[in-house]
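Quick illustration, no need to memorize.
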Amino acid sequence: MNERTPANRAQADYWTTEGGPSWVRHERMYERMLAPFDDALLAAVNPTDRTTVLDIGCGFGATSLAFAARGATVRGVDLSPPMIDRARQRAGTATVDFAVADVQTDDLGGPHDAVISRFGVMFFDDPVQAFTNMASATAPGGRLAFVCWQPMEANPWMTLPSQVVRGLLDEPPPAPSGPMPGPNPFAFGDADHVRTILDAAGWNPIDIASCTPTIDMGGDDGVAGAVAQALNGSAVKLLLAAGDESVRA
């Protein structure tokens, strides 16, 4: 694998030591929450048994396996070795190949008929370079389809728990306002920013549509499950670090 920039190295370290293991531990919770977005990707690409697909930031493989179940041959890549290990465990005999890879710099194989991603494209140090590399791995006439979070204020599953924790802290840190700089879950919340990146990387024409399914937090575990999921979120973890154990309780 090529030498990474400091930001990519930070992302790789996080998804290897903290983020990846946490997502694998709470796999059922996250899969239930994000499953509706797989439906949106499947509708956008409409894969067949002849479709070859590259899944960017594939995580523990749920989206890759959803496409394989529709007949596609899928290559899933992610920075996180723990998540790729789990994806391989889940794959069984499915027509999916999983690999640890840096999308900005590594050979992505191909040419693929379609490139997809479920919340895996917001963490690049150089997004233009990453999307250019994806384009080089795509067959002529191939498609790119991904889902990313809208601005934080449009995502109460994230903002409401943070507001609750802030209200319990004696001196809460300043709340973020406007687009958050650098690699982060909401880095693609501005549609014009996304268009600029995709255009610079050679992806045209560009169509951006709002996708707003209901987020299921807690599922069968009800309020207790929703609280557990909220406490596992990175933004809430950062806030809890500013308090003591009584705040978490």
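The mean pLDDT is 91.
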